[in-house]
Amino acid sequence: MIEISFQDAKEAKALYERLNKQKNALSINYIQITYNQDVENKVRVAIKKKKEIAIQTALIPVLVQFVLDRVEDAWILSIIENEFYFSDIEEQNQILTIAHSLINGQYEELPEAKEIKSRKETLRVALDSFIHSTISFSFESFLKFRLRDYSQILLKYTEMAIDEYKLEQEYQNFIQNLRDYTVNRTPKIERLHILHDDQFFFYNESLNELKYSEITKHIDRKLIMNHPMYIDSNVIAPLVSIAPKSIAIYTNEIDHGMVQTIQNIFLERVHIYSKGYFENVKLQQKI
User: Fold this and answer.
1) Residue 168: helix, strand or coil by DSSP?
2) Which of 118, 157, 184, 234 is at 20 to 30 A from 27, Cα to Cα?
3) On the CB side of 15, how many CA atoms lie within 13 Å of its CA?
4) Residue 191, Cβ neighbours under 10 Å: how many?
5) What is the pTM of this model?
6) CA 260, 106, 266 angle in degrees (round to 5)?
7) How many whole angstroms separate alpha carbon 180 and alpha carbon 287?
8) What is the pLDDT of residues 196-254, one digit of tens each?
9) H helices present in the chain, as ranges
10) What H or E segment, with its residue span, contains residue 249?
């Protein structure tokens, strides 16, 4: 008999329902799962035969997913607040969202995230070394004393998420400062055309390409001094210094980081077109 006790009746019921669902999905009739909510918060699993197979195919996979679904977020939030002292609920949730993205592999530019051990495999190993056909234990005690490796994995993800959150906050502050700067600056060119073809090429209202010397002469040196770590001297610095009323970008990579940054700074002033459309615009200009 395997007996798992819970402090929370809802958690006990949730595990009971998941175990029964797994049992039915696998058509295993030699497992009996019982839970009496009115008496005690304990889930009992009696395995009549093929005990090791039942543990490996039914019990452990359910417990692994149970921890991931019902425990993981609470642990990450606890790390955020108690280890890194972020007490604001909104900040906590933003960091948690980033942690989810890291876990799901959405930060491809961070290869170190891929090097972190598998959460599922770490949980499986912990359960495999602990669960036997005859055992009685507290679920909360198991979490506290048997999942050190798993908690270290969550700590790593949380640390990375906080680093990304801080970088995002710095980026947003940087963008807002440039927005404020452009609002109060007199435009040097009314409408600027930008062709993105590996590099970024500037064109004036008449679609004549602007030489680098023509572009850089507009750069406000104070701007670079105030943002030495972030400002791009080839695109962003001259563009913000020129502060055009309207910007047309011709690109086939609308998700390109520089294109996104220009959009974030100038907002509704920016209009995006395909790179091929640029030749049509030039042709119309000549007619």
Assistant:
1) helix
2) 118
3) 31
4) 16
5) 0.83
6) 10
7) 38
8) 999 999 999 989 999 988 888 888 887 777 765 567 888 999 999 999 999 999 999 99
9) 9-26, 51-54, 60-70, 72-82, 89-103, 111-114, 119-128, 139-146, 148-183, 212-216, 221-226, 236-242, 257-266, 277-286
10) strand 246-250
